[in-house]
Write a structure and sequence with these properties.
The chain is mainly alpha-helical. It contains 14 helices and 4 strands. The strands form 2 sheets. A two-stranded antiparallel sheet has the order 1-4. The longest helix has about 35 residues. It is globular, with a radius of gyration of 23 Å.
Length: about 325
């Protein structure tokens, strides 16, 4: 799936930034004075378009992710969800809240969501009609796999409706987090173009040596570290790793005990910004995790390997910095 995703990301950049959207030209385009004819968009809008089109390519196909009506319908529905939820939470009086948000919810469901569903359904029907036709058999997507699994009952209306609904529901579930991460990455690169050029050179070298595919990802440790540092400072979720205590109470090393049935999670931002756990926690250090991986290797008496993943949990970061 790497090649179609990369192709779609480039297509989105060409559409929004301009053709030949390499690192230098992209940064120069975004930083240059804005002429009247240039399209103006925020980094969030650009990140959203990249994530949405790329993720839709994985779920559906090239025709779906480049259908502007589908993209516009999805964005309208998505923004409506956020605004309806915000208004619901912020209205101070319960009865007034119900009076205002109930019509909004009905409009969101029966107009915007129905429009999105209808477009997705038309694509599912198109794929069914093309199933025995001339489609490229080498390209794989989730919809194709689902149709293969449902081969005996795929043509009935219930299955078609189910596939159409899952298309936009899975997109909603999967495209939001990358959008926030990408937006924060863009901001950091625009603030410090030197990082963008370093990451671009690493990516270019990885592609030249290993081609477009999964293999190149094992040789982009600087990019890996950059993404993790963005996640550390700007966590997508406020709480991570929700766990329920099962079977019997759980006792920590300091004697604190969680009774059976307790549900607990880890506050991402608090842990990431805790100076007792992370050195200089408020500083954006794009290559922090590469340095930590190097420390691990030096501690273990092994040379640093570029292809070694730089995965580190908070406890591993702490250990590498000698806090534990």
């Amino acid at each position: 799936m790497s090649v179609p995703m990369i192709e779609e990301a480039k297509s989105s950049l060409d559409l929004n930034v301009g053709e030949k959207s390499g690192m230098d030209s992209t940064i120069a385009t975004l930083q240059a004075p804005i002429p009247v004819e240039r399209k103006i968009m925020s980094v969030v809008e650009l990140a959203n378009d990249l994530s949405l089109r790329t993720f839709t390519r994985v779920l559906g196909d090239k025709e779906l992710c480049r259908d502007q009506k589908y993209i516009d319908a999805f964005n309208t529905w998505s923004r409506g969800n956020m605004m309806t939820g915000f208004i619901t939470l912020m209205f101070p009086f319960e009865y007034l809240r119900l009076a205002v948000t109930w019509p909004l919810t009905l409009y969101q469901k029966h107009v915007r969501q129905q429009n999105l569903f209808n477009i997705a359904k038309s694509h599912v029907i198109r794929r069914l009609e093309e199933r025995l036709g001339t489609r490229d058999k080498t390209e794989v997507d989730t919809l194709k796999s689902a149709m293969k699994l449902m081969a005996t009952e795929i043509s009935n209306p219930e299955s078609i409706n189910s596939l159409a609904a899952q298309l936009w529901q899975l997109t909603w579930a999967g495209a939001q987090s990358p959008t926030m991460t990408l937006a924060n990455m863009f901001v950091r690169v625009l603030e410090h173009p030197e990082h963008g050029k370093t990451l671009y050179e690493e990516a270019r070298s990885a592609v030249e040596n290993h081609g477009w595919g999964d293999a190149m990802l094992n040789h982009m440790s600087l990019m890996d570290s950059f993404i993790r540092e963005v996640h550390r400072l700007y966590p997508v979720f406020s709480m991570n790793t929700q766990i329920k205590v099962m079977n019997q109470p759980f006792t920590f090393s300091d004697g604190f005990t969680l009774p059976k049935g307790t549900v607990f999670a880890f506050p991402a931002a608090s842990l990431s910004l805790d100076s007792e756990l992370v050195g200089n926690p408020e500083e954006f250090d794009p290559y922090r995790f590469v340095k930590l991986a190097k420390q691990d290797n030096e501690r273990d008496g092994q040379p640093l390997k570029q292809e070694r993943p730089t995965w580190h949990s908070v406890s591993e970061i702490t250990s590498a910095q000698g806090v534990f």
